Amino acid sequence: MMEHPENDEKYKGLIVNKGVTQPPSVNPYLKKRIKRKTNSAEEYVEGILSGNRTMLSKAVTLVESSLPEHHELAQSIIEKCLPHSGNSIRVGITGVPGAGKSTSIDSFGMHLLKNGHKLAVLAIDPSSERSKGSILGDKTRMERLSVEQDAFIRPSPSAGSLGGVARKTREIIILCEAAGFDYIFVETVGVGQSEIAVHSMVDFFLLIQLSGTGDELQGIKRGIMEMADGIVINKADGDNIAKAKIAKRQLQNALHLFPLPESGWTPEVLTYSGYYNIGIEEIWDMIDRYIKFVKDNGYFYQKRNEQSKYRMYETINEHLRNSFYNDPEIAALLLKLEDDLLHARKSSYAAAKEALERYSQLQK
Ligand code: GDP
């Protein structure tokens, strides 16, 4: 049978071509692409160990996720990466906003990369959930580093509590180390509790200071100074050089009043310019000397051990707290107890005891 009667000889001059099958209007591959393949823990670990950045990023996203199904997979990945972790120098970096943390990290990082190292920059910013988007670890703030293959920059996880953020950051450190990053920076803003969290996960704690602000020691919390293994005064360039030198002397004098830290290392004070790349080598020389010093006297390993213990207790505490407060019956009881307190029907201690006893019963 003829396909088209119009092609019959009697219709002269008229030819109808055979039709062409139209391609489907929906991309047949789209379905496959939308339905993302979920990788197994083994596949993630294999990717991470071979230095695959996409796999590392995806695994970090799983660690950061609050979905229960991600949690299990993330924990399994972390556990498998653990034997491959620990081989990095972890440096905590703190300083008030504007001290020049990101400018400095950019310069420090480029210095390390030039010397053949691989660097991961992480951040702890427990306020990031409130401020919607972290001001730390933002790639746009580290212009040179952010385009380097050997640098991995990740903003702060935005889990609500500091404990949660800190735990996730520690887990991310494990993944980065397994992926071959031999330097890890953990950045935090110099405003309080978050320094303690950072201090509990790094080998060297670096405090970035500014000069030329009048009383040089004003605004630095004594506790933060005591935690520092090195204090570096930024923006020692141009007219600021003289002021930076004065600040250095003042800080050195202040540090002499503190007892010698457990590490046996006397914290050093240096001046530099992150922006103009002056004095960067001296800072890394100081950090290298510190690491050698504490490895020789054993403090390096002792501190890491203590950090592991701290991590275990922190995990237990967080688990207990969540299990307690997330129990619907306890939540209802607490509301009732709050009301009892308000009307002076019970003391705080009696109310706490009642809630805890009810929780123990629920666990049986
Ligand atoms: P952060 O808030 O601590 O991360 O600080 P930034 O790195 O964003 O720096 C704050 C401001 O100080 C920016 O305008 C930088 O350009 C400037 N700055 C940073 N480092 C230096 C430096 O070494 N010298 C000078 N003169 N300015 C700097």
TrEMBL record:
GO cellular component: cytoplasm
InterPro entries: GTPase_ArgK (IPR005129), P-loop_NTPase (IPR027417)
Coiled coil: none
Recorded GO MF terms: GTP binding; GTPase activity; kinase activity
Gene3D superfamilies on file: 1.10.287.130, 1.20.5.170, P-loop containing nucleotide triphosphate hydrolases
Keyword field: Kinase, Transferase
NCBIfam families per record: lao, PRK09435.1
Name of the protein in its database record: Putativeprotein kinase ArgK
Organism: Fermentimonas caenicola
Origin organism lineage: Bacteria, Pseudomonadati, Bacteroidota, Bacteroidia, Bacteroidales
